[in-house]
Design brief:
With about 240 residues, the protein is α/β, with parallel strands linked by helices. Helix content is about 40%, strand content about 20%. The structure holds calcium ion (CA).
Length: about 240
């Protein structure tokens, strides 16, 4: 079952972190017209609390937090493309932000065409196929090649294990119900024993070897755990 196709067909989500309402609104309008799903937040705090995005456009001059710090913390938790937006005179911040994991930068004022071109260019560079690679803590999942790596080392998964991980990684933090996993990974009308899911989850955890990565939410389902609290645990036994 080509789960990756369904995921790739979804529009890319862009998080606009910008405290100037006028700029934020016009960026969001332009992005939406170009086919992206845009969300706007005006503070660093809100950026860190926002739903995962594929691309983050991060203004470095934010009212509540140092934009470079926001960049660093975003990079720790996700592999989203981060393009920092700076005003003239903030060249120093821009360099630091690139060191902290930003993928590219834009200098204000910039036009919509330049913004869109920059997003496309960075996406091409990050994912040559144009597909989205999901990353969560030390784990990255590439739906196109069906490769999974943990701390850069490739892990061999069975097709079912991969499909389960892909469902979870597509939206880390969201609880995916047992029924949803059975329907998406096995069959739209799965009436067999649900124990089969637990067996595959156990094998997946063992192979990934990252404590707390695949969490059981009792009575509901599974999700990828927030590893930021305890930090990544390379090579920890599952
Ligand atoms: Ca600003």
């Amino acid at each position: 079952m080509a789960r990756g196709d369904a995921v790739r067909a979804a529009p890319l989500r862009v998080l606009v972190v910008e405290d100037d309402d006028g700029i934020a609104r016009s960026m969001a309008r332009g992005l939406q017209r170009a086919g992206y799903v845009a969300q706007v937040v005006g503070t660093g705090e809100a950026a860190l609390a926002a739903a995962p995005a594929d691309v983050v456009l991060l203004d470095l001059g934010l009212p509540d937090m140092d934009g470079v710090e926001v960049c660093r913390r975003l990079r720790m938790r996700s592999d989203a493309v981060i393009i920092v937006v700076t005003a003239r005179g903030e060249e120093g911040d821009r360099v630091v932000a690139l060191d902290e994991g930003a993928d590219d930068y834009l200098v204000k004022p910039f036009g919509l065409a330049e913004l869109l071109a920059r997003i496309r260019a960075v996406l091409r560079r990050v994912t040559p196929s144009g597909s989205v690679v999901f990353a969560h803590g030390p784990v990255s999942v590439d739906p196109r090649t069906r490769r999974v790596t943990v701390n850069g080392a490739e892990i061999a998964l069975t097709p079912k294990e991969f499909d389960i991980l892909e469902c979870l990684a597509a939206d880390p933090g969201r609880v995916v119900t047992r029924q949803e996993l059975l329907e998406r990974v096995w069959d739209a009308n799965w009436y067999g024993p649900t124990k089969v899911l637990d067996v595959h989850i156990a094998a997946l955890r063992r192979k990934l070897g990252v404590d707390g990565l695949v969490e059981t939410v009792y009575g509901r389902g599974f999700r990828l755990g927030d590893l930021a609290a305890g930090g990544p645990q390379p090579g920890a036994a599952g």
